[in-house]
């Protein structure tokens, strides 16, 4: 194929004895390289190089130019293939604007600029045509051939033509054939029969064919224009004869006209093809979204930038007790408890400010049907064709059970499993909060308690008895505390009591009252036959809003240490 096309070009378009004015042979090699795996490249390159060398030797500038021209043809095709493979990894050159532009730039802006300079150098030595004219002949002829024939060859090698023939309805095929036939008749009229230059008259049919038939029709119309217009120009008829100069100059002008026609039709077809694919993707996405939204237990809302609901899924009736059609046009904030409304609005604004990221918020609904007490909403912005947020899609799910389990787990974690007192972590959090109150003027105290000689209880009666003593110890202390007070187990036999709204004197009185409650012995066996008396040592400190939690604990611990070394069963105040 390469040899036949190259031979025809050399026989018909070497008007001045130099390079051919029209060259479409390289389009076959480019198409092969762009559509095949790289391991198959050597066989295509070798075959086309041999074909180029033989055609040049027999019908071109002779044997001396055969090998250099063959190498230059291969270099041109390789440059185009390498650039396109680099920037279009999926090898889909035809059918979208960006890949097609990469191909055009690689062919017109890089490959043929380099190859034309190399070929013009060879031609200026072996033919009477000067370097500048040779460079223009090569560049215009190879650009025309690549733009005209490479796209259709790529479509053929990728199987697009066969796929189009299989998948296109008969009516569309008939329409395309009819449009191409009318176009061919019009081009024949323009180049052979018209009394006036009507080159502009082909542009509207080119666009119409691209709109109606896509890239296949656009490629076919360009070939029709190239064949009919090329034959007329080389035979000295048609509107190109109005251009003064040689036949070669007229052919070059025709190539420029043909290149513009190619860009017009193929770019329109590529853009339409991209939009068609996008439309199909949107249809599939819409179908999936509709199926999920209408059959999901979660509530799906489409919310505008202004917070107004534009769509509500059918599950809204079951989840929040409101018909979907009644929600449309309402503000989404009206569904949220006023205490959580500001947080939900902030999440909505954050989703609009950061599209492409999921934003989650938990809130209590204003009204609900059934046991819906807590909701989780995941929001994501929807962007328009300019990338600007046009709204938000939000999914709302019932998380009341999860919230209840979470609260239950928090309550379990906040309690000491043995005594029922606050856990160390929970008590320290309460202490931190009370210190913040102290900074605002509140007066509260921290009491550290350690059971005296508790190790002896474990050693004599066992750890089971020790556990019963610890449990009974807390049970006896609780009635002596107020509802605002808190007792926590810090570890082992060490406890802490937070006395809220109490100065040091009142806290000391409460401590003595607690000591009185420990007068009665505590049973140490399950039968209750044996009991022991339990006492405790205590250290008391008044909370200082200027000090840290660690400082308060350390001060109370030092006071407790002095109580232990003062004979135990006593209270000592922090210095």
From TrEMBL:
Domain GGDEF residues, every copy: 442-575
Keyword tags: Cell membrane, Membrane, Transmembrane, Transmembrane helix
GO molecular function: catalytic activity
Domain PAS: 285-355
UniProt topology in membrane: Multi-pass membrane protein
Assigned GO CC terms: plasma membrane
Compartment(s) of residence: Cell membrane
Protein name: Sensor domain-containing diguanylate cyclase
């Amino acid at each position: 194929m390469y040899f036949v096309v190259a031979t025809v070009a050399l026989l018909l378009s070497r008007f001045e004895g130099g390079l051919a004015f029209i060259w479409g042979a390289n389009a076959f090699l480019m198409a092969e390289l762009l559509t095949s795996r790289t391991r198959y490249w050597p066989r295509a390159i070798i075959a086309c190089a041999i074909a180029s060398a033989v055609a040049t030797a027999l019908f071109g500038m002779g044997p001396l130019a055969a090998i250099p021209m063959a190498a230059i043809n291969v270099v041109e095709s390789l440059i185009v293939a390498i650039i396109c493979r680099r920037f279009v990894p999926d090898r889909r050159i035809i059918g979208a604007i960006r890949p097609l532009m990469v191909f055009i730039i690689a062919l017109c802006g890089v490959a043929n600029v380099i190859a034309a300079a190399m070929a013009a150098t060879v031609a200026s030595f072996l033919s009477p045509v000067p370097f500048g004219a040779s460079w223009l002949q090569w560049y215009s002829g190879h650009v025309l051939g690549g733009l005209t024939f490479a796209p259709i060859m790529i479509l053929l090698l990728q199987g697009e033509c066969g796929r189009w023939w299989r998948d296109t309805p008969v009516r569309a095929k008939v329409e395309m054939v009819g449009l191409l036939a009318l176009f061919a008749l019009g081009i024949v009229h323009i180049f052979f029969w018209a009394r006036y230059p009507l080159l502009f008259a082909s542009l509207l049919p080119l666009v119409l064919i691209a709109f109606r038939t896509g890239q296949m029709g656009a490629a076919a119309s360009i070939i029709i224009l190239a064949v009919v217009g090329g034959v007329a120009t080389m035979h000295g008829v048609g509107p190109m004869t109005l251009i003064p100069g040689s036949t070669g100059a007229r052919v070059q002008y025709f190539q420029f006209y043909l290149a513009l026609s190619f860009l017009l039709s193929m770019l329109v077809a590529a853009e339409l093809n991209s939009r068609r694919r996008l439309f199909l993707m949107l249809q599939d996405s819409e179908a999936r979204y509709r199926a999920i939204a209408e059959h999901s237990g979660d509530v799906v809302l489409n919310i505008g930038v202004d917070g107004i609901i534009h769509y509500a899924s059918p599950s809204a009736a079951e989840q929040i007790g409101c018909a979907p059609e009644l929600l449309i046009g309402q503000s989404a904030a009206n569904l949220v408890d006023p205490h959580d409304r500001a947080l939900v609005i902030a999440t909505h604004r954050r989703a609009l400010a950061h599209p492409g990221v999921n934003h989650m918020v938990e809130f209590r609904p204003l009204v609900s049907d059934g046991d819906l007490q807590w909701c989780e909403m995941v929001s994501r912005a929807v962007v328009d064709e300019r990338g600007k947020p046009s709204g938000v899609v939000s999914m709302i799910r019932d998380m009341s059970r999860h919230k209840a389990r979470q609260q239950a787990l928090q309550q379990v974690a906040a309690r000491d499993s043995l005594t029922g007192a606050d856990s160390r972590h929970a008590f320290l959090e309460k202490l931190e909060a009370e210190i913040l109150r102290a900074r605002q003027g509140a007066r509260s105290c921290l009491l550290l308690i350690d059971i005296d000689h508790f190790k002896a209880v474990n050693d004599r009666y066992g750890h089971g008895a020790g556990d019963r003593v610890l449990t009974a110890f807390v049970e006896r202390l609780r009635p002596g505390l107020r509802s605002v007070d808190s007792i926590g187990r810090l570890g082992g036999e060490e406890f802490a009591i937070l006395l809220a709204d109490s100065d040091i004197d009142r806290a000391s009185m409460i401590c003595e009252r607690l000591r009185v409650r420990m007068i009665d012995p505590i049973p140490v066996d399950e039968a209750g036959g044996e009991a022991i008396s339990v006492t405790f040592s205590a250290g008391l400190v008044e909370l200082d809003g200027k000090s840290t939690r660690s400082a308060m604990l350390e001060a109370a611990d030092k006071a407790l240490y002095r109580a232990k070394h003062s004979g135990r069963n006593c209270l000592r105040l922090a210095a």
